[in-house]
Amino acid sequence: MTETFGADFLVRWLTAAAGVVDREADRLTELDSAIGDADHGANLRRGFAAVTATLAKEPPRTPGAVLTTAGRELISTVGGAAGPLYGTLLRRTGKTLGEGARVTRQELAEALGSGVTAVSQLGGAQVGDKTMLDALVPAVDGLRESFAAARAAAEAGALATVPLRARKGRASYLGERSEGHQDPGATSSALLFAALDETARTPRAGAAS
Asked: Which one of 1.25.40.340, 3.20.20.210, 1.10.443.10, 3.30.428.10 gives the CATH number of domain 4-201?
């Protein structure tokens, strides 16, 4: 029997993501200080804190609504490129999921795939450009296999950005000087999939999801 996940699972995922972003914010900012604006950690911390506050105040009833609400909140509260990019990722994923009360892991993977495509279209980036896509694309592929595979693929993708030369975003202005640094967007993307895996490993007591 295929396991399905309700709105509560998505809320717990984003709450877990907010926690890991908060813990890792200084590291994200340190990475961003080398090749960006040195604000990635602070911006995401603020954005995901706003997401969790909104979801706690008015919990959406479907997985799609959870992600659409979260995406909208990130777009409105996060400065720089991270807000529109992460907001687009979650918002498009939520819209793709639609109004179903529960989703399978495969359905979530397919919906996230549409979200990643939207991110690529928005930023004009592809895998290999040293952006969040270097973690997101393999993570979605991994999610079709398992939550753990998605996490591992995202983390490997983030590490693989170290030797790359940035072709998009602020880092691209540095040319060869962007080489040797791990991309902060790919790193934060990997954190989201780590939180997703942890959420799947620790189901809520007394609940199916």
From this structure: 1.25.40.340
